[in-house]
């Protein structure tokens, strides 16, 4: 015959420990879940607040000046002091004269390089390669502290 009389701690103190243990276990699980959520939320916020990569900034600057989806490649080289950017020309039209084309391409390169140098203070030099349908037309180089850009005509069709 089983006894209906309480045993152990319940008999000595009159306190049933099972509900207390369940309550503490639930509190630990809830607190652990809240802590994990907080850690994940803080990491996401830190990632969101981090500035974009310099390549992304340079791409956005050139595309804001030249046009959307024109940038083909952006590289940061030489200890993050030189930006090499390649983009499609939006001003190149074969029916224009060579002199007009050279002037327009130099202006396009100047705008792109100055946009980068003006916004990215840690950059000292920018080399912009302007292409059209896969053909390299000109290379425009700008350096911080120099007033004029250096334009190198690569395409034979633009030379005198």
Describe the structure in your own words:
By secondary structure, the protein is of the alpha+beta class. The N and C termini lie far apart (116 Å). The protein has helices spanning 8-13, 17-49, 54-65, 98-119; strands spanning 71-77, 82-88, 125-132, 135-143, 150-153. The mean pLDDT is 90. Strand 3 (125-132) and strand 4 form a beta hairpin. It has four helices and five strands; from the N terminus they run H-H-H-E-E-H-E-E-E. It is rod-shaped. It has two domains: 16-49; 54-158, GMP Synthetase, Chain A, domain 3 (2-Layer Sandwich), CATH 3.30.300.
Supply database-style keywords.
160 residues, rod-shaped, five-stranded mixed sheet, 5 strands, 22% strand, 46% helix, GMP Synthetase, Chain A, domain 3, alpha+beta, single chain
Provide a compact summary of the structure.
With 160 residues, the chain is an alpha+beta fold. 46% of the residues lie in helices and 22% in strands.
Instruction: Output the helix-strand order.
Output: HHHEEHEEE
Integer-rounded radius of gyration: 33 Å
Overall average residue pLDDT: 90
**Tally of helical segments:** 4
CATH class of the largest domain: Alpha Beta
- Structural class by sheet pairing and helices: alpha+beta
* Strands, total number: 5
The domain tally reads: 2
Question: What is the CATH T-level topology of the largest domain?
Answer: GMP Synthetase, Chain A, domain 3
| Uncertain stretches of 5 or more adjacent residues | none
The name of the CATH architecture of the largest domain is 2-Layer Sandwich
**Overall 3D form:** rod-shaped
Strand order of the largest sheet: 1-2-3-4-5
Helix content: 40-55%
Main sheet? 5 strands, mixed
Strand content: 15-25%
Distance between the termini: 116 Å
């Amino acid at each position: 015959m089983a006894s209906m009389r309480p045993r152990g701690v319940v008999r000595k103190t009159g306190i049933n420990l099972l509900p207390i243990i369940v309550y503490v276990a639930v509190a630990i699980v809830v607190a652990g879940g809240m802590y994990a959520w907080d850690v994940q939320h803080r990491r996401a916020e830190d990632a969101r607040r981090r500035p974009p990569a310099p390549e992304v900034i340079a791409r956005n600057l050139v595309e804001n000046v030249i046009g959307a989806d024109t940038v083909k490649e952006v590289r940061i080289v030489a200890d993050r002091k030189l930006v090499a950017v390649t983009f499609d020309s939006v001003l190149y039209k074969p029916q224009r004269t060579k002199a007009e084309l050279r002037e327009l391409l130099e202006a396009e390169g100047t705008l792109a390089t100055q946009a980068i140098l003006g916004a990215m203070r840690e950059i000292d030099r920018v080399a912009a390669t302007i292409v059209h349908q896969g053909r390299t037309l000109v290379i425009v180089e700008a350096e911080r502290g120099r007033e004029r850009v250096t334009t190198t005509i690569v395409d034979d069709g633009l030379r005198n």
